[in-house]
Amino acid sequence: MTKTALVTGASRGIGLETVHRFIHNSEDITTVVMFARKSDDFDEAVEELRSSSPVGRKIITRYVDVGDRDSLIENLESVHEEVGNIDILVNNAGYTNPIPLQQAEIEDFEKTMNVNVYAPFLIVKTLLNKGNVFKLIVNIASTAGINGRSGWLTYSASKAAVINMSQVMREELAIYGTRVVCLSPGRTATALRRTLAPDEDPDTIMQPEHVARVIETFASPVGRFIDSENIVVRQ
Amino acid sequence: MYSLILLNGGIGTRVGANQPKQLLKLRGIPILVYALVMANRVEKIDQIVLNYPPEWKESVEQVLEDYAISTPVTLVEAGDSRHSSVAAMLPHCTNENVIIHEAARPLVTKKNFEDLIEDQHANVSLMTPISFTVAPVDPDTREVTGSLERDQLRNVQLPQKFSKADLVDAHSQAEKDKKVFTEDATLVAVAGHPVYFIDGSDVNFKVTTPTDLRMAGFLLRPEEEDDD
Question: Cross-referenced PROSITE patterns, in alphabetical order (chain A) (predicted)?
């Protein structure tokens, strides 16, 4: 049976690597929907994917800022109309602006929560309300959500919420047979990591493809044998 | 194809809540949702006839919308008794075969419905053996009047399936004879139509008391809580 996957934050990093692996390695994922903000990086990545993808694979793209609720819902509705049921959802899009507590603005905290917490919630809720039955939901949290980090208050708090929200989703969606996986990567060489640790050499830490491989495993038939409450992926 | 009569009209006084027990939360989800979602996944059920306690129609409609139940649902106000509710829901069934289930049995599975549908007979009920002794008594004198053979008794469960014609006939006979039944397998059998049983499951119990509610929540918890 063929499957459709939706990946947010798909223009680079873990999201793009996940799409790559779904397109090139999966036997049953035939359609991949990519959500990302409009950028040259996104356009180039999509062009490269389309030119290299095996025959029969379909790539659908949407320019979406998942923090913009109206736009997010509008795009979800149009994509659901176009591709039908979304079987696999990877909530990967993330945002951070590491600022000490005394300097953090509430507006920035709200933006962080919008992208990291409310968007995954809205995607799942909107599609469920439309009768979508997910087989697998992967929520990307962070080890910073397990233990808060000095200077990363908004990010740590949002990722802690993702871990907890995933546990609730896992219980509530069990009636549909949906598996909900929460992945908490440690230091990974992504653009977000560069914001958090600008002086770090990205070659010395985990690469996005390593996390994408774990996501690929969860989406494969063997994935259902792995306990999925909160998987820490670190080098 | 089958029409599902989903009984959802009880007020639930025994469970001790100020709302119908079917709308109480079981592991955070309204009890009614469990049976609805399972029935929604059964391909051979293409209509759900759902009743609702008077004054609770909006709440039930909201559940149907929130959980995106895609099988067409016909809503009917509940009658004074279970017996009268089934009689009132039957004319709304568009198929020649009907399944009866009740929302207060949230641990029903898709397989329960499918086993019932696959059985060769027209009128079939899930039933379980009785693990205790039932004594016939005279309730007025409190005298035990005899003995019943346990092997020849069964605990009647839901879901059940019937030929709509047999069920309609049985209800009309009961009305004529002024008899009220608490469930439909014995009603149809007494009316002279053959009714058979297949094995039910002890977890598919009816949530009636607060203890039942806790028990159902325990059985629905994630399996890893059983791990060493």
Answer: ADH_SHORT (PS00061)
- Ordered structural domains, chain B, with CATH: 2-125+155-226 (3.90.550.10)
CATH number assigned to the domain covering A3-233: 3.40.50.720
Write out pLDDT tens, residues B62-107.
999 999 999 999 999 998 888 889 999 999 999 999 999 999 999 9
- CA-nearest residue of chain B to A131? B68
| Cα(B89)–Cα(B126) distance, integer angstroms | 21
Q: Give chain A positions within 8 Å (CB) of B29.
A: 172, 175
Q: Inter-chain contact A174–B224, Cβ cutoff 8 Å?
A: no
Dist. CA A89–CA A182, nearest whole Å: 12
- Total beta-carbon pairs less than 8 A apart between chain A and chain B: 28
Which CA distances in Å does A54 have to A79, A95, B135? 22, 32, 71
Q: Which residues of A touch B106 (CB under 8 A)?
A: none
Question: Least CA distance to B31: which residue of chain A?
Answer: A175
pLDDT digits 0-9 by tens, A22-68: 999 998 999 999 999 999 999 999 999 999 999 899 999 999 999 99
Residue of chain B with shortest Cα separation from A132 = B68
* Inter-chain CB proximity B28 and A168 less than 8 Å: yes
**What are phi and psi for residue A99, nearest 5 degrees?**
-135, 140
Q: Which residues pair with B162 in a beta bridge?
A: B98
How far is it, in rounded angstroms, from Cα B118 to Cα B14?
Answer: 35
Cis upstream peptide for B139 (omega within 30°): no
- On whether the CB atoms of residues A132 and A79 are closer than 8 A, the answer is no
Whole-structure pTM value: 0.84
